[in-house]
Amino acid sequence: MKEMDLTEGNILKKLLAFTIPFLIANVLQSLYGAVDLFVVGRYCSAESVAAVSTGTQVTQIVTSLVTGLTLGSTIIIGQYKGEKDYERVKQAIGTTLSVFGCTAVFLTVVMLFFERPLLVLLKTPSQSFELTMEYVAVCLLGNIFICGYNAISAILRGYGDSTRPMIFVGVACGLNIVLDFVFVKYLGLNVAGTALATVISQAVSMISAIVYLKRHHFLFDFRLKSFCPVWKIVKKLALVGIPISFQEMMVRVSFLYLMAVMNNCGVYAASVVGISSKYDVFAMLTSTSMASALAAITAQNLGAGKPERARKSLWYGMGFAVFVSCLFWLWAQVNPVSMIRIFSGDENVAAAGAPFFKSCSYDYLMVALVFCLNGYLNGRQKTVWTMVSCSAGALAFRIPMVYFFGKYFSEDLGKLGMIAPIVSGVMACYTLVYVLYEGRKKKHGYEKQPAVSDR
User: Fold this and answer.
1) pLDDT over threshold 90, residue 182
2) Does residue 236 contact residue 68 with C-beta atoms inside 8 Å?
3) How far is 93 from 77, CA to CA, in rounded Å?
4) How far is residue 141 from each of residues 53, 111, 301, 381, measured CA to CA in Å?
5) What is the rounded distance in angstroms from the CA atom of residue 248 to the CA atom of residue 387?
6) Are 337 and 350 in contact (CB under 8 A)?
7) Residues with Cβ < 8 Å from 67, sequence gap 6 or more?
8) Within a 10 A sphere around the Cβ of 126, how many other Cβ atoms?
9) Do residues 449 and 379 make contact, with C-beta atoms less than 8 angstroms apart?
10) pLDDT of residue 313
């Protein structure tokens, strides 16, 4: 196994060595939707493109719900690993896999039942409604594989191994690209082909991961009797994971509202926001990857009784994330039109989008701070605090600002672009104050996180 002991050695080297595979894995995962949309757009109708675009919004609801459990299991396993309590590590792995299996079945049943009313609520175009139903149904039937893959990746990262999840994602991404072309271009399966390609690639990735781990004598043996949930750990997983899932959902709701408001500003505004969202994903990948890595590193070091090492990792991580984000920010400040023209040759879109890109790109810097701080706090299992913080940012700040600016400045995209950095900037300030305040507390047992330890 390639797991790292994140509690020893040079902090910066360990941080980068653990984070870079995270980053590559996230880049590969981001290619999934892009490739699906590219293949459908090239070989199918406009209705098919609309079906995949809308269907992806629905399937991302499942991803948001699973995200909390994923990070929760990484944190819990990371702390037990830091404590060198390998028996509890095995129990946490068995519990994680059992919970993810039950979650997959539950989400599949619920989402299939509410699929049609949900698509109606999203105002799915009538021309693409049935195609969207087909795409979503196939994806939902593969939930067991999607949840299984995420569970194994979470386990390995908590154990200190970010390289193997990257490899498994690479296998899934490569296979998905091949199957997309086979199913859509050559077999003519339309949107069902892209959904089927995703499900099969996730299944192969999950099965490959299990086979690999068994052959390399991983700590967990994957035998049926080992899939026995420990209820104390189930409770801890819920306490840590559910707040993260909730905050992900609230943030998604606020951005959907932003998209709806921008759509009302006209076709050029809608195009600009759509292009901007693509850059948001890639500009913030380093920050999201660093946040996930900091959660695992913090959990292991607090489990090992090394809080100062965890804090130093935070400052190094923030510095690296801000540096990478600066590169995208500089591009947007110097030549935003070149960013827009990669996706659109329409001069009207470029002219409308330049001021928006210049203002919204400040969010790349603010988000780098927020994500890293929240990753550190999640590793310390302050997930209720991060839930309240992110939910407040989404519901109390972003949505009212979107309403206000959309009502009074709908013609000024430069001002509309300032919404995201203002909200993120406020969140960065009060989160930093909270982290500094917590760091000065001297209460006995503070760093051992009794929320996880049973002793």
Assistant:
1) yes
2) no
3) 7
4) 18, 10, 39, 32
5) 8
6) yes
7) 244, 245, 248
8) 8
9) no
10) 92
Per-residue 3-state assignment (H helix, E strand, C coil) for the chain = CCCCCCCCCCHHHHHHHHHHHHHHHHHHHHHHHHHHHHHHHHHCCHHHHHHHHHHHHHHHHHHHHHHHHHHHHHHHHHHHHHCCCHHHHHHHHHHHHHHHHHHHHHHHHHHHHCHHHHHHHCCCCHHHHHHHHHHHHHHHHCHHHHHHHHHHHHHHHHCCCCHHHHHHHHHHHHHHHHHHHHHHHHCCCHHHHHHHHHHHHHHHHHHHHHHHHHHCCCCCCCCHHHCCCCHHHHHHHHHHHHHHHHHHHHHHHHHHHHHHHHHCCCHHHHHHHHHHHHHHHHHCHHHHHHHHHHHHHHHHHHHCCCHHHHHHHHHHHHHHHHHHHHHHHHHHHHCHHHHHHCCCCCHHHHHHHHHHHHHHCHHHHHHHHHHHHHHHHHHCCCHHHHHHHHHHHHHHHHHHHHHHHHHHCCCCHHHHCCHHHHHHHHHHHHHHHHHHHHHCCCCCCHHHCCCCCCC
State pLDDT tens for residues 54-99.
777 678 777 777 877 787 888 888 888 888 888 898 999 999 999 9
Upper half-sphere CA count for residue 165 (Cβ side, 13 Å): 31
Task: Sort residue 445 into left (φ over 0), alpha (ψ -120 to 50) or beta.
Answer: left
Least confident span in 134-143, 197-206, 346-355: 346-355
With 50 as the cut, is the pLDDT of residue 105 above it? yes
**20 token code pair:** 């870079």
Contacts of 289 (CB under 8 A, 6+ apart): 19, 22, 23, 25, 26
What is the rounded distance in angstroms from the CA atom of residue 62 to the CA atom of residue 59?
Answer: 5
The answer to whether residues 379 and 78 touch, using CB atoms and an 8 Å cutoff, is yes
Of 32-36, 387-391, 418-422, give the lowest mean pLDDT range: 32-36
Q: Can you tell me the distance from the alpha carbon of 266 to that of 20, in angstroms, rounded to the nearest whole number?
A: 39
Which pLDDT tens digit goes with each residue over 299-334?
Answer: 888 888 888 898 999 999 999 999 999 999 999 999
Can you tell me the distance from the alpha carbon of 103 to that of 48, in angstroms, rounded to the nearest whole number? 30
Average pLDDT over all residues of the chain: 82
The predicted structure's pLDDT at residue 236? 85
Q: What pLDDT is stored for residue 314 in this prediction?
A: 93
**Number of residues assigned to the chain:** 455
How far out from the chain centre does Cα 225 lie?
Answer: 32
The arithmetic mean of pLDDT across residues 210-214, rounded, is: 88
